[in-house]
Amino acid sequence: MRIWLGTRSGGRLVDADQARVSVLDHGFTVADGVFETLRVTRAGPFALSRHLRRLCESAAVLDLPAPDLSVVQDAVDTVVGAWWSDGGSLGRLRVTYTAGAAPLGSGRGAGEPTLVVAVASAEPWPETTSAVTVPWTRNEGSAVAGAKTTSYAENVVALRRAHEQGSSEALLANTRGELCEGTGTNVFVVHDGRLLTPPLTSGCLPGITRELVLEWFGGEEVDLPMSALHEADEVLITSSTRDVHPVVRLDDRQWDEAGPVGLRLRAEFAALAAEQIDP
């Protein structure tokens, strides 16, 4: 495994055991950074332009200097090329952009932002999945609501709860008690034939797969109570590694199989994604 490591201005490809970032990097000390995760196939990284746009939007929320997208693009091309030449298969690409070296504490230093691009192996998800609801909440009024930051401790705790219960994802409400999102997914419900998902004002991440589902298939952004999960005809979760993933077990509720809407969207999303590597 080889990793592209550098700064906003440039860097180089190094072996994984040589990829070192300062312990004083603000991304390490206080999680002051942003990132993107993409699926990589032989055709390339999926929806790269949309992910790089969101990387810039998240950086702006944190008031980080805008990443140089020509440098990021070169890093992605270099890493993906090395991945395939080294015998890689289905991959998970991560672009991480942090504030760089800084004094200990919340205040930033004058260091140049750090940029890291890496690919790791990814296993295909099963056709259906399971999820649980958890008691913790998303803060829709947070200063970083909607930004994809490296501060993922809340997600680690919630996802651990899901794994302890034999599920692959944990679903959270916001502070108003409305359905928000999963630890690494967006949520859709099907109710009386309507495809519904929480609006961005719920505090959920503006997911790229969520965005594509709404563009390609329609759907409504609606404030939903958490009870909508247990009243829905179908529940779907979406992410850049899962695409459209039907949920067949949610807490104590179980469906015999994926519903017709989930099956259709999963198949049609896969077909469109295969036709358009950068929609």
Give the helices and strands as they follow along the chain.
Answer: EEHEEHHEEEHEEEEHEHEEEH
Structural class call reads alpha+beta
Output the CATH class name of the largest domain: Alpha Beta
CATH architecture of the largest domain: Alpha-Beta Barrel
CATH homology group of the largest domain: D-amino Acid Aminotransferase, subunit A, domain 2
The total of beta strands comes to 15
- Average of pLDDT: 97
Portion of residues in beta strands equals 25-35%
Instruction: Give the CA-based shape.
Output: globular
Please name the CATH topology of the largest domain: D-amino Acid Aminotransferase, Chain A, domain 2
Keywords for this structure?
D-amino Acid Aminotransferase, Chain A, domain 1; 279 residues; 6-stranded antiparallel beta sheet; 2 domains; D-amino Acid Aminotransferase, Chain A, domain 2; 15 strands; 7 helices; alpha+beta; 9-stranded mixed beta sheet
How would you describe this structure to a colleague?
The protein is an alpha+beta fold and 279 residues long. It has two domains: 2-121, D-amino Acid Aminotransferase, Chain A, domain 1, CATH 3.30.470.10; 129-275, D-amino Acid Aminotransferase, Chain A, domain 2 (Alpha-Beta Barrel). Helices cover 28% and strands 31% of the residues. It has seven helices and 15 strands. It has helices at residues 26-29, 48-61, 69-85, 153-164, 208-217, 228-231, 260-275, and strands at residues 2-7, 10-15, 33-41, 44-45, 91-98, 114-121, 129-138, 169-174, 179-182, 186-191, 194-197, 220-221, 234-239, 243-250, 253-254. Strands 7, 8, 9, 10, 11, 12, 13, 14 and 15 form a nine-stranded mixed β-sheet that branches. A six-stranded antiparallel β-sheet has the order 2-1-6-5-3-4. A hairpin with a 4-residue loop joins strand 8 and strand 9 (179-182). It is globular. The protein starts with a strand and ends with a helix.
